[in-house]
Amino acid sequence: MLLVLALLPVRWTGWVGRLGDFAELVVSPIANPMRAMAGWIRPARVSGGSAEVEQYREQVERLTAQVNRVEAENVRLRELIKMLQGGMAMASAAPTRDLAVSVVSASSDLSSRLLRVRGGRRQGVEAGSVAVGVGLQLVGRVAEVEALTSLVRPITAREAGPIRARVMLSEAGLWLDSTLTPDGEGGLRGPVEYRMQAQAPGRVLEAAPGQVVRLDDPTWPEGAQMLLVGQVERVEPNPRAPGRQIVVVRPTLELHRVSELILRVPLGGETGGPR
Amino acid sequence: MNWIMVGLVAWVMLGLEKGLRGALELGASGIAPSFVFVLATFVALLAPAGTALWTCLALGLVIDLTHTVSLSAGGSAVVVGPYALGYVLGCQLVLTMRGVMMGRNPLSLGFLALVASIVCHIVVVAVFAVRGLMVNDVAWAASGQLVPRLGSALYTGGLAVGLALVLFPMAGALGLSGPQARRFGRRVS
Lengths: 275, 189
Description:
- With 275 residues, chain A is an alpha+beta fold.
- Chain A contains three helices and twelve strands, in the order H-H-H-E-E-E-E-E-E-E-E-E-E-E-E.
- Chain A has helices spanning 2-7, 16-41, 51-84, and strands spanning 96-106, 115-118, 130-132, 138-145, 149-154, 163-168, 175-182, 188-193, 212-215, 228-237, 245-250, 260-266.
- In chain A, the strands form two sheets. In chain A, strands 1-2-5-4-3-12 form a six-stranded antiparallel beta barrel.
- Chain B has 189 residues and is mainly alpha-helical.
- Chain B has one domain (3-24, 31-171): Arp2/3 complex 21 kDa subunit ARPC3 (Orthogonal Bundle), CATH 1.10.1760.
- In chain B, 64% of the residues lie in helices and 3% in strands.
- In chain B, helix 3 (49-65) packs antiparallel against helix 4 and helix 4 packs antiparallel against helix 5 (106-134).
- The longest helix of chain B has 29 residues, at 106-134.
- Chains A and B meet through helix 1 and helix 2 of A and helix 1, helix 3, strand 1, strand 2 and helix 4 of B.
Protein backbone atom coordinates (compact mmCIF):
# COMPACT_ATOMS: atom_id res chain seq x y z
CA MET A 1 0.00 0.00 0.00
CA LEU A 2 2.87 2.35 0.86
CA LEU A 3 4.50 1.63 -2.47
CA VAL A 4 1.28 2.42 -4.31
CA LEU A 5 0.87 5.64 -2.30
CA ALA A 6 4.46 6.59 -3.07
CA LEU A 7 3.94 6.15 -6.80
CA LEU A 8 0.52 7.77 -7.15
CA PRO A 9 0.39 11.18 -8.87
CA VAL A 10 0.37 14.08 -6.42
CA ARG A 11 -3.05 15.26 -7.63
CA TRP A 12 -4.59 12.04 -6.27
CA THR A 13 -2.91 12.27 -2.89
CA GLY A 14 -3.64 15.90 -2.06
CA TRP A 15 -5.31 14.86 1.21
CA VAL A 16 -1.91 13.72 2.51
CA GLY A 17 -0.88 17.37 2.61
CA ARG A 18 -3.34 17.96 5.48
CA LEU A 19 -1.69 15.19 7.47
CA GLY A 20 1.65 16.82 6.67
CA ASP A 21 0.37 20.18 7.97
CA PHE A 22 -0.73 18.47 11.17
CA ALA A 23 2.67 16.79 11.54
CA GLU A 24 4.39 20.15 11.04
CA LEU A 25 2.09 21.68 13.66
CA VAL A 26 3.13 19.00 16.16
CA VAL A 27 6.84 19.36 15.38
CA SER A 28 6.95 23.19 15.26
CA PRO A 29 7.02 23.80 19.05
CA ILE A 30 10.33 21.97 19.34
CA ALA A 31 11.82 22.53 15.88
CA ASN A 32 11.47 26.32 16.08
CA PRO A 33 13.55 26.82 19.27
CA MET A 34 16.11 24.34 17.96
CA ARG A 35 16.39 26.32 14.74
CA ALA A 36 16.75 29.56 16.69
CA MET A 37 19.47 27.93 18.79
CA ALA A 38 21.19 26.69 15.64
CA GLY A 39 21.11 30.23 14.22
CA TRP A 40 22.73 31.48 17.42
CA ILE A 41 25.44 28.78 17.39
CA ARG A 42 26.15 28.99 13.67
CA PRO A 43 24.76 32.17 12.10
CA ALA A 44 23.87 32.27 8.43
CA ARG A 45 26.04 35.33 7.76
CA VAL A 46 28.99 34.49 5.53
CA SER A 47 31.07 37.59 6.29
CA GLY A 48 31.14 38.55 9.96
CA GLY A 49 31.02 42.00 11.57
CA SER A 50 29.73 43.90 14.58
CA ALA A 51 26.06 44.85 14.94
CA GLU A 52 26.83 48.50 14.16
CA VAL A 53 28.76 47.62 11.00
CA GLU A 54 25.92 45.28 9.98
CA GLN A 55 23.45 48.14 10.45
CA TYR A 56 25.49 50.52 8.29
CA ARG A 57 26.03 47.80 5.70
CA GLU A 58 22.28 47.25 5.50
CA GLN A 59 21.64 50.99 5.20
CA VAL A 60 24.18 51.30 2.37
CA GLU A 61 22.67 48.24 0.72
CA ARG A 62 19.16 49.70 0.97
CA LEU A 63 20.22 53.01 -0.57
CA THR A 64 22.24 51.34 -3.31
CA ALA A 65 19.33 49.07 -4.20
CA GLN A 66 17.05 52.11 -4.23
CA VAL A 67 19.35 54.08 -6.56
CA ASN A 68 19.73 51.09 -8.88
CA ARG A 69 15.98 50.52 -8.88
CA VAL A 70 15.35 54.18 -9.75
CA GLU A 71 17.88 53.97 -12.57
CA ALA A 72 16.29 50.78 -13.89
CA GLU A 73 12.86 52.37 -13.52
CA ASN A 74 14.03 55.36 -15.56
CA VAL A 75 15.12 53.08 -18.39
CA ARG A 76 11.84 51.16 -18.16
CA LEU A 77 9.77 54.38 -18.14
CA ARG A 78 11.59 55.66 -21.20
CA GLU A 79 10.67 52.46 -22.99
CA LEU A 80 7.15 52.71 -21.64
CA ILE A 81 6.74 56.23 -22.95
CA LYS A 82 7.59 54.90 -26.37
CA MET A 83 4.98 52.17 -25.95
CA LEU A 84 2.36 54.59 -24.61
CA GLN A 85 2.79 56.60 -27.71
CA GLY A 86 1.41 53.54 -29.39
CA GLY A 87 -1.63 53.59 -27.05
CA MET A 88 -0.66 50.83 -24.61
CA ALA A 89 -1.79 50.91 -20.96
CA MET A 90 0.68 51.28 -18.09
CA ALA A 91 0.63 48.81 -15.21
CA SER A 92 1.62 50.28 -11.84
CA ALA A 93 3.72 48.41 -9.33
CA ALA A 94 1.73 46.92 -6.44
CA PRO A 95 2.66 48.39 -3.02
CA THR A 96 3.99 45.95 -0.45
CA ARG A 97 4.49 45.76 3.31
CA ASP A 98 7.32 43.98 5.10
CA LEU A 99 6.39 41.05 7.35
CA ALA A 100 9.13 39.69 9.64
CA VAL A 101 8.84 35.92 10.00
CA SER A 102 10.94 33.23 11.63
CA VAL A 103 11.98 30.06 9.83
CA VAL A 104 10.27 27.18 11.62
CA SER A 105 12.10 24.32 9.97
CA ALA A 106 13.62 22.94 6.83
CA SER A 107 12.33 19.89 4.99
CA SER A 108 13.23 16.49 6.45
CA ASP A 109 14.71 15.36 3.16
CA LEU A 110 18.23 16.23 2.08
CA SER A 111 17.29 16.95 -1.51
CA SER A 112 14.69 19.58 -0.64
CA ARG A 113 15.76 23.13 0.24
CA LEU A 114 12.29 24.51 1.01
CA LEU A 115 12.06 26.57 4.19
CA ARG A 116 8.89 26.63 6.30
CA VAL A 117 8.27 30.09 7.75
CA ARG A 118 5.83 31.24 10.43
CA GLY A 119 3.49 33.41 8.38
CA GLY A 120 0.65 32.32 6.16
CA ARG A 121 -2.63 33.26 4.54
CA ARG A 122 -3.91 34.83 7.77
CA GLN A 123 -1.01 37.28 7.76
CA GLY A 124 -1.70 38.16 4.12
CA VAL A 125 1.16 36.15 2.62
CA GLU A 126 0.59 35.19 -1.00
CA ALA A 127 2.31 32.74 -3.29
CA GLY A 128 5.10 34.57 -5.09
CA SER A 129 5.81 37.00 -2.22
CA VAL A 130 9.49 37.86 -2.06
CA ALA A 131 11.60 36.70 0.90
CA VAL A 132 14.52 38.89 1.96
CA GLY A 133 17.21 38.18 4.55
CA VAL A 134 19.64 40.27 6.59
CA GLY A 135 21.40 42.95 4.57
CA LEU A 136 18.62 42.95 1.97
CA GLN A 137 19.92 39.67 0.62
CA LEU A 138 17.33 38.13 -1.69
CA VAL A 139 16.43 34.72 -0.27
CA GLY A 140 13.68 33.47 -2.55
CA ARG A 141 9.98 33.40 -3.24
CA VAL A 142 7.00 31.91 -1.41
CA ALA A 143 6.18 28.65 -3.17
CA GLU A 144 3.11 27.67 -1.19
CA VAL A 145 0.91 29.34 1.41
CA GLU A 146 -1.04 27.64 4.18
CA ALA A 147 -3.18 29.18 6.90
CA LEU A 148 -0.37 29.82 9.39
CA THR A 149 2.83 28.89 7.59
CA SER A 150 4.35 29.20 4.13
CA LEU A 151 7.06 27.48 2.17
CA VAL A 152 9.86 29.61 0.75
CA ARG A 153 11.94 28.31 -2.12
CA PRO A 154 15.46 29.82 -1.94
CA ILE A 155 17.04 31.08 -5.17
CA THR A 156 19.86 28.57 -4.64
CA ALA A 157 17.54 25.53 -4.57
CA ARG A 158 18.05 23.34 -7.63
CA GLU A 159 14.35 23.45 -8.50
CA ALA A 160 14.21 27.27 -8.25
CA GLY A 161 15.23 27.71 -11.87
CA PRO A 162 17.29 30.45 -13.51
CA ILE A 163 17.14 34.14 -12.65
CA ARG A 164 18.22 37.19 -14.61
CA ALA A 165 20.73 39.36 -12.80
CA ARG A 166 23.15 42.23 -13.24
CA VAL A 167 26.81 42.00 -12.35
CA MET A 168 27.47 45.54 -11.14
CA LEU A 169 30.90 46.68 -12.27
CA SER A 170 33.05 48.81 -10.02
CA GLU A 171 32.52 51.81 -12.24
CA ALA A 172 29.19 53.44 -11.42
CA GLY A 173 26.40 52.94 -13.91
CA LEU A 174 27.96 49.98 -15.72
CA TRP A 175 26.87 46.39 -15.49
CA LEU A 176 26.83 43.06 -17.28
CA ASP A 177 23.72 40.93 -17.63
CA SER A 178 23.73 37.27 -16.71
CA THR A 179 21.32 34.36 -16.39
CA LEU A 180 22.21 32.54 -13.19
CA THR A 181 21.28 28.94 -12.41
CA PRO A 182 21.58 27.24 -8.99
CA ASP A 183 24.74 25.12 -8.86
CA GLY A 184 23.48 22.81 -6.12
CA GLU A 185 26.27 23.88 -3.77
CA GLY A 186 24.62 26.95 -2.29
CA GLY A 187 25.62 29.27 -5.12
CA LEU A 188 24.57 30.32 -8.61
CA ARG A 189 26.47 30.30 -11.86
CA GLY A 190 25.87 31.50 -15.36
CA PRO A 191 27.39 33.04 -18.48
CA VAL A 192 27.99 36.75 -18.68
CA GLU A 193 26.25 38.46 -21.58
CA TYR A 194 28.12 41.17 -23.41
CA ARG A 195 26.01 44.00 -24.64
CA MET A 196 27.21 47.35 -25.81
CA GLN A 197 26.33 49.93 -23.19
CA ALA A 198 25.65 53.54 -24.00
CA GLN A 199 27.84 54.67 -21.07
CA ALA A 200 30.88 52.75 -22.32
CA PRO A 201 30.86 52.61 -26.10
CA GLY A 202 33.50 50.33 -27.60
CA ARG A 203 34.90 49.22 -24.24
CA VAL A 204 35.37 45.61 -23.20
CA LEU A 205 33.70 45.13 -19.83
CA GLU A 206 34.66 42.18 -17.66
CA ALA A 207 33.30 40.64 -14.50
CA ALA A 208 35.69 40.20 -11.56
CA PRO A 209 35.54 38.52 -8.15
CA GLY A 210 33.98 40.64 -5.42
CA GLN A 211 31.56 42.47 -7.69
CA VAL A 212 27.99 42.74 -6.46
CA VAL A 213 25.20 40.95 -8.32
CA ARG A 214 21.63 42.25 -8.27
CA LEU A 215 18.32 40.88 -9.46
CA ASP A 216 16.98 42.25 -12.72
CA ASP A 217 14.37 39.74 -13.69
CA PRO A 218 11.03 40.77 -15.20
CA THR A 219 9.38 37.56 -13.93
CA TRP A 220 9.94 38.72 -10.32
CA PRO A 221 7.81 41.38 -8.58
CA GLU A 222 8.81 45.03 -8.76
CA GLY A 223 9.82 45.11 -5.08
CA ALA A 224 12.44 42.43 -5.66
CA GLN A 225 14.27 44.23 -8.46
CA MET A 226 17.84 45.27 -7.68
CA LEU A 227 17.92 43.29 -4.47
CA LEU A 228 21.24 41.68 -3.64
CA VAL A 229 21.68 38.23 -5.20
CA GLY A 230 25.25 37.89 -3.94
CA GLN A 231 28.85 38.58 -4.82
CA VAL A 232 30.96 37.18 -7.65
CA GLU A 233 33.04 34.48 -5.99
CA ARG A 234 35.08 33.53 -9.04
CA VAL A 235 35.16 34.00 -12.79
CA GLU A 236 35.77 31.08 -15.13
CA PRO A 237 36.28 30.96 -18.90
CA ASN A 238 33.17 29.89 -20.79
CA PRO A 239 34.07 26.58 -22.54
CA ARG A 240 31.26 27.07 -25.07
CA ALA A 241 32.25 30.58 -26.03
CA PRO A 242 36.00 31.29 -26.01
CA GLY A 243 36.86 34.70 -24.63
CA ARG A 244 33.61 34.87 -22.69
CA GLN A 245 33.14 34.47 -18.94
CA ILE A 246 31.07 32.41 -16.51
CA VAL A 247 30.49 33.91 -13.09
CA VAL A 248 30.00 31.92 -9.90
CA VAL A 249 27.93 33.96 -7.46
CA ARG A 250 27.71 33.30 -3.73
CA PRO A 251 24.92 34.90 -1.65
CA THR A 252 26.07 36.90 1.39
CA LEU A 253 24.01 34.53 3.58
CA GLU A 254 23.86 30.75 3.63
CA LEU A 255 20.26 30.71 2.50
CA HIS A 256 19.38 27.25 3.83
CA ARG A 257 20.55 28.28 7.29
CA VAL A 258 18.66 31.56 7.83
CA SER A 259 16.46 31.72 10.91
CA GLU A 260 14.71 35.06 10.26
CA LEU A 261 13.24 36.44 7.05
CA ILE A 262 11.26 39.41 5.80
CA LEU A 263 8.40 38.68 3.42
CA ARG A 264 7.35 41.46 1.07
CA VAL A 265 3.61 40.97 1.12
CA PRO A 266 1.39 42.71 -1.43
CA LEU A 267 -0.92 45.31 0.17
CA GLY A 268 -4.69 45.25 -0.25
CA GLY A 269 -4.81 41.64 -1.39
CA GLU A 270 -3.17 42.44 -4.70
CA THR A 271 -0.91 39.75 -6.02
CA GLY A 272 2.69 40.83 -6.30
CA GLY A 273 3.07 39.41 -9.76
CA PRO A 274 5.70 40.10 -12.31
CA ARG A 275 6.25 43.68 -13.24
CA MET B 1 8.09 -1.00 24.86
CA ASN B 2 6.79 2.19 26.44
CA TRP B 3 5.05 3.83 23.47
CA ILE B 4 4.50 7.16 25.24
CA MET B 5 8.17 7.55 26.15
CA VAL B 6 9.32 6.45 22.69
CA GLY B 7 6.84 8.91 21.14
CA LEU B 8 8.21 11.70 23.31
CA VAL B 9 11.82 10.89 22.40
CA ALA B 10 10.80 10.66 18.72
CA TRP B 11 9.23 14.14 18.98
CA VAL B 12 12.45 15.56 20.45
CA MET B 13 14.56 13.78 17.81
CA LEU B 14 12.38 15.12 15.00
CA GLY B 15 12.67 18.62 16.45
CA LEU B 16 16.45 18.24 16.63
CA GLU B 17 16.57 16.91 13.08
CA LYS B 18 14.48 19.68 11.56
CA GLY B 19 15.88 22.43 13.73
CA LEU B 20 19.58 21.60 13.70
CA ARG B 21 19.93 20.21 10.19
CA GLY B 22 21.13 23.53 8.79
CA ALA B 23 23.65 24.02 11.60
CA LEU B 24 25.03 20.48 11.36
CA GLU B 25 25.19 20.42 7.56
CA LEU B 26 28.70 20.29 6.11
CA GLY B 27 28.86 23.54 4.14
CA ALA B 28 26.17 23.51 1.46
CA SER B 29 26.86 19.89 0.53
CA GLY B 30 23.50 18.55 1.74
CA ILE B 31 25.35 16.18 4.07
CA ALA B 32 23.53 16.22 7.41
CA PRO B 33 22.80 13.59 10.06
CA SER B 34 19.40 12.11 10.91
CA PHE B 35 18.47 12.03 14.59
CA VAL B 36 15.24 10.16 13.88
CA PHE B 37 17.07 7.42 12.04
CA VAL B 38 19.38 6.89 15.02
CA LEU B 39 16.29 6.41 17.21
CA ALA B 40 14.82 3.99 14.64
CA THR B 41 18.07 1.97 14.68
CA PHE B 42 18.13 2.02 18.47
CA VAL B 43 14.57 0.68 18.67
CA ALA B 44 15.33 -1.93 15.97
CA LEU B 45 18.38 -3.03 17.97
CA LEU B 46 16.59 -3.53 21.28
CA ALA B 47 12.85 -4.00 20.70
CA PRO B 48 11.03 -7.22 19.70
CA ALA B 49 10.91 -7.63 15.92
CA GLY B 50 7.23 -6.77 15.42
CA THR B 51 7.37 -3.71 17.66
CA ALA B 52 10.56 -2.52 15.96
CA LEU B 53 9.02 -2.78 12.49
CA TRP B 54 5.86 -0.89 13.49
CA THR B 55 7.90 1.81 15.22
CA CYS B 56 10.19 2.25 12.21
CA LEU B 57 7.17 2.39 9.91
CA ALA B 58 5.65 5.13 12.07
CA LEU B 59 8.93 7.09 12.19
CA GLY B 60 9.34 6.77 8.42
CA LEU B 61 5.79 8.01 7.90
CA VAL B 62 6.45 11.04 10.08
CA ILE B 63 9.55 11.84 8.02
CA ASP B 64 7.50 11.48 4.82
CA LEU B 65 4.82 13.80 6.17
CA THR B 66 7.33 16.47 7.15
CA HIS B 67 9.23 16.19 3.87
CA THR B 68 7.92 18.67 1.34
CA VAL B 69 8.93 18.20 -2.27
CA SER B 70 8.77 20.81 -5.00
CA LEU B 71 6.50 20.09 -7.95
CA SER B 72 7.63 20.50 -11.54
CA ALA B 73 4.63 22.71 -12.23
CA GLY B 74 5.33 24.91 -9.17
CA GLY B 75 4.07 24.58 -5.63
CA SER B 76 4.87 21.73 -3.30
CA ALA B 77 3.44 18.45 -2.06
CA VAL B 78 3.90 15.63 0.41
CA VAL B 79 4.72 12.17 -0.94
CA VAL B 80 3.97 9.37 1.52
CA GLY B 81 5.91 6.15 1.22
CA PRO B 82 9.58 6.54 0.30
CA TYR B 83 10.92 7.03 3.82
CA ALA B 84 8.36 4.72 5.43
CA LEU B 85 9.55 1.92 3.13
CA GLY B 86 13.18 2.89 3.62
CA TYR B 87 12.88 2.84 7.41
CA VAL B 88 11.12 -0.54 7.37
CA LEU B 89 13.78 -2.11 5.14
CA GLY B 90 16.53 -0.50 7.21
CA CYS B 91 14.89 -1.93 10.34
CA GLN B 92 14.71 -5.36 8.72
CA LEU B 93 18.45 -5.19 8.09
CA VAL B 94 19.13 -4.29 11.74
CA LEU B 95 16.86 -7.15 12.90
CA THR B 96 18.85 -9.54 10.73
CA MET B 97 22.22 -8.29 11.91
CA ARG B 98 21.58 -7.62 15.59
CA GLY B 99 22.09 -11.27 16.53
CA VAL B 100 25.74 -11.07 15.59
CA MET B 101 26.36 -7.65 17.14
CA MET B 102 27.24 -6.67 20.69
CA GLY B 103 23.87 -5.37 21.80
CA ARG B 104 24.73 -2.45 24.04
CA ASN B 105 27.88 -1.20 22.40
CA PRO B 106 27.80 2.37 21.00
CA LEU B 107 29.89 1.24 18.06
CA SER B 108 27.28 -1.42 17.22
CA LEU B 109 24.60 1.27 17.11
CA GLY B 110 26.88 3.46 14.98
CA PHE B 111 27.65 0.68 12.50
CA LEU B 112 24.04 -0.46 12.24
CA ALA B 113 22.83 3.14 11.80
CA LEU B 114 25.36 3.56 8.99
CA VAL B 115 24.45 0.46 6.99
CA ALA B 116 20.70 0.75 7.63
CA SER B 117 20.81 4.42 6.63
CA ILE B 118 22.50 3.46 3.34
CA VAL B 119 19.71 0.93 2.70
CA CYS B 120 17.08 3.53 3.56
CA HIS B 121 18.58 6.09 1.17
CA ILE B 122 18.81 3.51 -1.62
CA VAL B 123 15.10 2.78 -1.18
CA VAL B 124 14.20 6.49 -1.16
CA VAL B 125 16.22 7.20 -4.31
CA ALA B 126 14.78 4.09 -6.02
CA VAL B 127 11.19 5.07 -5.20
CA PHE B 128 11.67 8.63 -6.44
CA ALA B 129 13.49 7.39 -9.55
CA VAL B 130 10.67 4.94 -10.40
CA ARG B 131 8.17 7.68 -9.66
CA GLY B 132 10.05 9.98 -12.04
CA LEU B 133 9.70 7.38 -14.80
CA MET B 134 5.98 6.80 -14.15
CA VAL B 135 4.61 10.19 -13.11
CA ASN B 136 7.06 13.00 -13.57
CA ASP B 137 5.26 15.54 -11.38
CA VAL B 138 7.95 16.09 -8.73
CA ALA B 139 11.02 18.28 -9.33
CA TRP B 140 13.54 15.67 -8.27
CA ALA B 141 16.69 14.41 -9.97
CA ALA B 142 18.50 11.20 -9.04
CA SER B 143 21.79 12.64 -10.26
CA GLY B 144 23.84 14.21 -7.51
CA GLN B 145 22.12 12.21 -4.77
CA LEU B 146 24.89 9.64 -4.22
CA VAL B 147 27.52 11.74 -2.42
CA PRO B 148 25.19 13.71 -0.09
CA ARG B 149 23.20 10.62 0.88
CA LEU B 150 26.28 8.43 1.41
CA GLY B 151 27.89 11.24 3.38
CA SER B 152 24.72 11.65 5.43
CA ALA B 153 24.68 7.92 6.20
CA LEU B 154 28.27 8.16 7.48
CA TYR B 155 27.37 11.27 9.49
CA THR B 156 24.31 9.50 10.93
CA GLY B 157 26.52 6.57 11.95
CA GLY B 158 28.90 8.95 13.70
CA LEU B 159 26.03 10.72 15.42
CA ALA B 160 24.64 7.36 16.55
CA VAL B 161 27.89 6.60 18.41
CA GLY B 162 27.50 9.88 20.31
CA LEU B 163 23.75 9.51 20.91
CA ALA B 164 24.28 5.93 22.13
CA LEU B 165 25.74 7.45 25.31
CA VAL B 166 22.36 9.09 25.95
CA LEU B 167 20.05 6.44 24.50
CA PHE B 168 21.44 3.29 26.14
CA PRO B 169 21.00 4.64 29.68
CA MET B 170 17.41 5.55 28.70
CA ALA B 171 16.64 2.05 27.41
CA GLY B 172 14.97 1.01 30.67
CA ALA B 173 12.69 4.07 30.70
CA LEU B 174 11.77 3.38 27.08
CA GLY B 175 10.88 -0.20 27.95
CA LEU B 176 13.61 -1.60 25.70
CA SER B 177 15.35 -4.39 27.52
CA GLY B 178 17.02 -5.91 24.48
CA PRO B 179 16.20 -8.70 22.05
CA GLN B 180 15.13 -12.10 23.33
CA ALA B 181 18.19 -14.29 23.91
CA ARG B 182 18.01 -16.99 21.23
CA ARG B 183 21.60 -17.08 20.14
CA PHE B 184 22.00 -20.84 20.30
CA GLY B 185 18.71 -22.10 19.00
CA ARG B 186 14.96 -22.00 19.41
CA ARG B 187 13.46 -21.96 22.86
CA VAL B 188 11.73 -25.30 23.61
CA SER B 189 8.90 -24.09 25.82
